[in-house]
């Protein structure tokens, strides 16, 4: 499986990008809302990401960045830009746009983004009659701050995966774009990411 990231000029062209479904539910998923997304690349600026879920009245109790949004109902996007190591970026959101953004090789070995780096993501949540969605931006400057020697712009591909998740027992679910073959729920495995080519 290879996801194709289309080059765009701005947000107005985001819906022209190739969409993906977050439809591989595994482990103890007692709730399976329909979720999807897409990614576009603005040359020399960064990546624009759209995530959406058909979920009316989603659980969204967290109100401060770095609160445990995975205990709400969350949409996540993980990206590995430097192909020479296992460090990756993780972005996790609830329907309010509350975010956990961090970088590192594993769930408990990640560096959190600074307040300014969170601001630079330009997170835009939106609630509709049919569900909720998040649009956010990953600046190239942020990528190179953490990975100054990354060569993804030369190789024109990265690795990524996308998730719909809640650890709350009433709506527990673990959905992903690319399925993960592990005995217990764990999205924080770069080996589960898929290749994404930048067209």
Number of strands: 14
Question: If you compute it from the alpha carbons, what radius of gyration comes out, rounded to the nearest whole angstrom?
Answer: 16 Å
From the N-terminal CA to the C-terminal CA, the straight-line distance is: 15 Å
Helix-strand string: EEEEEEEEEHEEHHEEE
C-alpha geometry: globular
Backbone structural class: mainly beta
The biggest beta sheet is recorded as: 14 strands, mixed
Percent in helix: under 10%
Query: Count of helical segments?
Result: 3
Mean pLDDT: 94
Low-confidence stretches: none
Beta content comes to 35-45%
Short recap of the structure:
This protein is mainly beta.
Description:
- InterPro entries: Carb-bd_dom_fam9 (IPR010502).
- One of its GO terms (biological process) is carbohydrate catabolic process.
- The structure is a single chain.
- With 199 residues, the chain is mainly beta.
- Helices cover 9% and strands 41% of the residues.
- The protein has helices spanning 115-120, 140-146, 152-155, and strands at 2-7, 19-21, 24-25, 35-42, 46-53, 74-80, 88-93, 99-104, 111-112, 124-128, 131-139, 157-166, 173-176, 194-198.
- Strands 1, 2, 3, 4, 5, 6, 7, 8, 9, 10, 11, 12, 13 and 14 form a 14-stranded mixed sheet that branches.
- β7 and β8 (99-104) form a beta hairpin.
- The longest helix has 7 residues, at 140-146.
- The chain is globular and about 45 Å long.
């Amino acid at each position: 499986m290879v996801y194709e990231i289309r080059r765009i000029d701005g947000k107005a062209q985001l819906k022209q990008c190739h969409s993906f479904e977050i439809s591989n539910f595994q482990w103890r998923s007692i709730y399976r809302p329909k979720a999807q997304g897409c990614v576009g690349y603005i040359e020399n600026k960064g990546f624009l990401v759209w995530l959406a879920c058909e979920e009316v009245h989603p659980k969204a109790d967290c109100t401060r960045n770095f609160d445990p949004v995975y205990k709400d109902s969350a949409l996540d996007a993980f990206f590995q830009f430097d192909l020479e190591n296992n460090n990756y970026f993780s972005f996790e959101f609830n329907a309010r746009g509350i975010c956990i953004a961090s970088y590192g090789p594993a769930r408990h070995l990640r560096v959190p983004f600074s307040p300014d780096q969170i601001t630079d993501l330009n997170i835009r949540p939106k609630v509709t009659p049919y569900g909720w969605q998040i649009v956010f931006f990953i600046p190239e400057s942020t990528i190179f701050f953490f990975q100054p020697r990354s060569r993804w712009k030369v190789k024109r591909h990265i690795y990524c995966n996308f998730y719909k998740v809640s650890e709350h027992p009433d709506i527990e679910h673990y959905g992903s774009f690319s399925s993960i073959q592990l005995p217990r729920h764990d999205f924080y495995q770069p080996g589960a990411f898929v290749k994404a080519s930048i067209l």
